[in-house]
Amino acid sequence: MNTQFRKGIIEMCITTLISRKDMYGYEVVQTIAVYTEINEGTVYPILRRLTQEGYFRTYLKESSSGPARKYYSITDMGREFLYKQKREWADITKMAEHILYPPLTAEEKEDAAHEQA
Amino acid sequence: MSKLEYLKQLEEALNGKISAAELNDIIRDYAEYFEEGKKQGKAEDEISKNLGIPSEVAEQILNADKEVKAEKTSAFKQAAQKLKKVWKSAAEDSVKAGTSAAKGMLYIAAAILMLPIVFVAVLAVGSVTISAVGMGISSAIIGTLAWAAVSILGIILPTEAVAAGVLLGLALVCIGVTVVSGMLWALSSFVRWLKQLFSEKEPEGCNEEEGKGEEV
Description:
The complex is a heterodimer of chains A (117) and B (216). Chain A has 5 helices and 3 strands, in the order H-E-H-H-E-E-H-H. By secondary structure, chain A is mainly alpha-helical. Chain A has a single domain, classed as Arc Repressor Mutant, subunit A, CATH 1.10.10.10.
């Protein structure tokens, strides 16, 4: 798959996760890794970029064990970005679905009915 | 690869390419990642493998930074290009529509811009012309008067003096004509340059660099 395309979708998913609750890096990576094979090192650059864009803000929180965790939390700008991304996503997936798997025409439905009968 | 080795390689790959503060921040992030992985019972070696080769991760970090910077500078670029596009489309409209209002407006705008320049140029050309012609006429008159004085009053003037007067007048006229034609030439080439400026084509190759391949 086009890597740029994949990256865009992963960005959208990360933004969605963080819009639901503040998360730290490892948590984000592991959540994404459940669904798809991913070079775990590539998630941090995405988190960093989205932070630099102003979509996330970060804060450190002491952990009971080990070093402090850096949490990512969504900003208003991030929410706006996500809203736009999701709308675009809905548009494009609708288009792809209709073109790749068009609904049956009336004739085709009739043929299917005959075959069954 | 151990955690320390991994972080060292990552640091080396990024060193000098980003600020020290950013570098520290990034190394902190990856160190945190190792610690979280270890808490889940993973070996450093395994965590390193899952993160990917340090030099590649460094490249992605630098690319991500470049993207952010490109987006920020292109805000200015975009504004400039938008302005250029508006102007260009107005110019194109005027060419297409021929005698349309756009063309008229374009010429009015150009005329307003050029008005002071033209005014000064006309003034300069006019004054030089007048002075040249004036000098020529006055020298001729002086010459004639001198000649008349010679013949009527019988005052003997050296003929060389009269000839010198007339020649001086002619020379002044020649200089005047040269200066005026030079100014006219300069004015016409200026106008031509302005015209060229208005019909200038937008340079090609403003396409944004398409995204580089990155394994995610």
